[in-house]
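Structure catalogue
Derive tokens from sequence
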Amino acid sequence: MVCLIIITLFFVNAERKIESVNTEYIVDNNQGTEAAIGDNYLKEINFEEDRFSVGWIKISDLSNLELYPNFSEKLTSRQASEKESCQFLVNGGFYSKDSTPIGLFISDGMKLNSEIASQVFNGFFSIDNKNDPGISYNLPKKGRLALQSGPVIIKNGVNQKISLEKDKRSRRIVLSITEEKDILFIVIFDNQSVYDGPTLEKLPKIIEFFEEIAEVNIIDAINLDGGTASSFYAPNIKLSELTFVGSYFCLKGLNN
């Protein structure tokens, strides 16, 4: 089975690296496309008064996409990627101070945590046993993987209103589903301060703007963990975390 994967990245320079303890930001446009998962592009976007960098990966064959817990093991993204032979790795949902998932968490068909009532973590992402993805306000039926996160950004093609008392700027990771049932993982950040990014309130409009750039039609989208507990780990771009990611999506190699 052929796995169709496309990475598209919007950044400034062909190569840039910013390092501090447990963090890296690498964009390398010198690799040939044969060495990468897919074609790579570099660009920045202007949104209102802000200037952001945006990157995304499109996954059409979901049979090789897994969700792994990292609440106890606390591996770095690099360690997790090497352990599971991930072609691509991105963080999952949120976790509590005692290193347990916030809300529903199902990995490899096993339920590791139950759902909670929350106005912020108000959505569920799941992939069923037929590898059909879904984002819903309602508890999903049993599937091979699922997590609770939020807020929901787009539902049935309609931007959702997001209003929080304490809405801070932060790097954002968005999981979205297109009308073709492809999954898009999207990262949005300020490349002058890689853990900075837009407020949650602005995400629906930014994703709407993103649809025009990427020429895609997003039906549903949900916010994942962001800021210092987020990572986006691909061959040509590595945005690592400052604090460990509680869970991660891993796109396995075709031979795994």
Summary: The chain has a mean pLDDT of 84. The radius of gyration is 17 Å.
